Amino acid sequence: MKKKPTQFFQDEYLQRCEGMNPEQIIEFLEGFRELSVQKPEKCKLISIKIPPSLLNAFKAKSAIKGVPYQTQIKKLMQDWL
Questions:
Q1: Residue 58 burial class via C-beta count within 10 angstroms: exposed 0-12, middle 13-18, buried 19 and up
Q2: Are 28 and 34 in contact (CB under 8 A)?
Q3: pTM of the model
Q4: 34-54 per-position pLDDT tens digit
């Protein structure tokens, strides 16, 4: 599950914001909304050495499950983290 960004404010900043007019508030909220919209990361091509028997077995099991093997590798990495 992706976490949404959390923004923290210092007391002096909050006091400064109390005098904002509606246009400034809308501008602030729009800026915050843009921060919270995460763009998908571009994937990075990597090279890894894996014994052929392990890779073949992994590909075979992925095919049985109907999941592309590279997708399964990424899922395992995400689950591990």
A1: middle
A2: no
A3: 0.50
A4: 777 777 778 899 999 999 999
